[in-house]
Amino acid sequence: MGTLPPLTAMSLPLRVWGAYVLAIVLLAIGLLIGPAARASASDYRLNTGDVLTFDFLDDAELPITATVSGNGEAQFPLIGGVNIVGLTITEALEKLGNEYRRRDILVDPKLSLNISTFRPIFVLGEVRTPGSFPFFSGLTVEQAIGLAGGMQIVASNASDRLVTRARLRAEVEAATAEIVHEAVYAARLSAQLKSSEKIDLNDVPEIARTYVEGLPFDSVTELEEKILKEDLAAYRSQAQILTEGIAQAEGGIEILNELVQQQKDIVSNSLEDVERIGALRKRGLNTESELSRAENSAGTEKAQLLQTFATLARTRQELSELKLQLAKLAADRKKDILTQLQEREIAIKKLISEQHAAEEQILLMAAVAKDESRKNQVSFAYEIRRNPVGGKPTSFEASLVTEMLPGDVVVVSIAGM
User: Which residues contact residue 77 at a Cβ distance below 8 angstroms, ignoring those fewer than 6 apart?
Assistant: First the structure.
């Protein structure tokens, strides 16, 4: 057999040669982005903001939802908060099973744990509506930009740019005002946790402290401190009512214990009278009616003793219920405050992201305005910022087909700017 001639563009028809080149290009792209773009669901490590679905497989109860909070814990039935941040679903299931066994709650727990909602991704930079958006499996950079309304269109003339800049500056100022409000709100919630009647600047979240420093703090906290005092007054009033009820119940129990002892003595004396009158009756020294009266009197005293026991039991039950209500009042209040604090921190981060995005757009518009000749040749660059659990934050260039992970931040910018 002879040697095959070298493959050249002249040795193939034009259509075949084009298909051949296209296949090679697609194969190269697939090899470059395939392994890096995808992440196995089983390798995903839980992080703050993930919403989980938890269920006992061997009972008829409906599944419950549990959110991974800022301290890394999620609340589960019977065992409360368990720190699962940084674990895979398999590792989290193993830890929960060990926890149920360790506390002697379940011998062989059959558990189910799934991620129902991942923490959101963020799209910033040169897009129409920067912010946070829900994550779904297989989400690409292009789809994330679509969720953010697509690429930001550069203003086509000077008047459009002036209007756009004015709108962006208004957005920056509005975001700053909202950040200050949320920061003071968070400080007020921290004061509620400490049962303090004054808001402390040190309780402002660290991420928002620079926005509050330099402001007349008394003026921005005046309304929040009124809310704080009203909340503390309402809580203390409810707690005082329950505390007084507990004190009254405890006093009633002491009195009833004394009555029980007295009644026991009376019953004992009545039974001795019955024995004495019965002995006299056998000797014929009294009448049958006297013995009958003594027996009736002893029976009445026994019934009175049983009634006192019943009243004592009811009072003890009321005391237990009052103590439970007092503990629940404090626990529910703390849980509600912590939930609101977490919401405030998320709101502040979102507002700061929106503010930075608006500021970046203002700077980009100023840069584009200096070079009008290039405004029709704008191309975009994409950067993904990733902060994995237990790892170092990373940043890398991406393409429109790069797949994202929960919590990723994609920054869209004009290439070369």
Answer: 54, 56, 64
- The token pair at 178 is 């909202």
Range scoring the smallest mean pLDDT among 12-21, 225-234, 406-415? 12-21
Distance CA 125, CA 370 (A): 19
The C-alpha atoms of residue 4 and residue 1 are separated, in whole angstroms, by: 9
What token pair was written down for 37?
A: 């773009």
Radius of gyration of the chain (CA): 37
Of the CA atoms within 13 Å of residue 396, those in its CB half-sphere come to: 15
Cα-based distances in Å from 113 to 67, 83, 238: 12, 14, 38
Residue 40: C-alpha distances to residues 2, 37, 74 (Å): 49, 10, 23
Q: Is the pLDDT of residue 39 over 90?
A: no
Helix (H) or strand (E) holding 346: helix 288-369
Q: What is the DSSP letter of 151?
A: B
pLDDT at 163 over 70: yes
DSSP assignment, residue 153? Answer: P
Nearest to 232 by CA among 197, 198, 199, 200: 197
Give me the residues paired with residue 112 across strands. 55
Gap between the Cα atoms of 323 and 70, Å rounded: 30
Which two structure tokens, joined as six digits, stand for 401?
A: 């087909």
pTM of the model: 0.44
| CA distance linking residue 168 with residue 156, whole number of Å | 16
Helix (H, G, I), strand (E, B) or coil at 45: coil
Which pLDDT does position 407 carry in this prediction? Answer: 87
The secondary structure of residue 201, as a DSSP letter, is G
Using CA atoms, how far apart are residues 58 and 109, in angstroms rounded to an integer? Answer: 8
DSSP 205: -
pLDDT value at residue 95: 93
Closest alpha carbon to 300 in 278, 324, 271: 271
The number of beta carbons lying within 10 Å of the beta carbon of residue 360 is 19
The tokens for 17 are: 């040669």
- Please check whether residue 123 is in contact with residue 382, taking contact to mean a CB–CB distance below 8 angstroms: no
CA 186 – CA 199 distance, rounded (Å) = 10
